[in-house]
Amino acid sequence: MLDTTMPALRAANDADPTDESALVRAAVAGDTAAYERIYHRHAPRLYAVLWRLCGGQAARAEDALQEAFLQAWRALPGFRFDSSLGTWLHRLGVNAALMELRANAARDAADSGEDDGAMLAAVPSFDRCAGTTLDLERALETLPPRARAVLVLHDIEGWKHHEIAEQLQMAVGSSKAQLHRARGLLRARLGEPA
């Protein structure tokens, strides 16, 4: 999946900030083609983050992506350029994915931690030398939802524990504990020594 988004990632990262503000203004004025450009510019990177947060479940990631862009469409007139458009969209997407995780928390029995071993055993094991991104992505999918969310937000997206705690409605200490748990489960799944 990551290989197919690399050109789109570069395009989003190389976006001219003045072009972005012109696109935002045009979209606010009702230009749907401008909004489509915004979508195509930012959706691939955002989808990759949401896919990880949703445990590799494409349908859930797509739902969160669509929800984020629907929220963005409604809120775009109030966008003040205090941050980059990409950062703002990223936050909307992560919030949509986290809402999805919260809504399904009761259904996700894996969050209790009781099924960790069963989930890990269900995924085919990999040769330690393989060490590919695919191995890591598959192992990441096996993590309990809250532990996965904390790991993705902290280690991949660079969020601070207080930001994660606020978004996931948990104590900062719980965020740190979930990160420790997630890293340990990943090491075990990838055959790394504890």
Automatic annotation (TrEMBL):
Residues 38-105 form the RNA polymerase sigma-70 region domain. Residues 135-183 form the RNA polymerase sigma factor 70 region 4 type domain. InterPro entries: RNA_pol_sigma-70-like, RNA_pol_sigma-70_dom, RNA_pol_sigma70_r2, RNA_pol_sigma70_r4_t2, RNA_pol_sigma_r2, RNA_pol_sigma_r3/r4-like, WH-like_DNA-bd_sf. Keywords: Sigma factor, Transcription, Transcription regulation. It holds the Pfam family Sigma70_r2. The keyword Transcription applies. The keyword RNA-binding does not apply. Belongs to the sigma-70 factor family. ECF subfamily. PANTHER family: RNA POLYMERASE ECF-TYPE SIGMA FACTO, RNA POLYMERASE SIGMA-70 FACTOR ECF SUBFAMILY. This is Sigma-70 family RNA polymerase sigma factor. It comes from Stenotrophomonas aracearum.
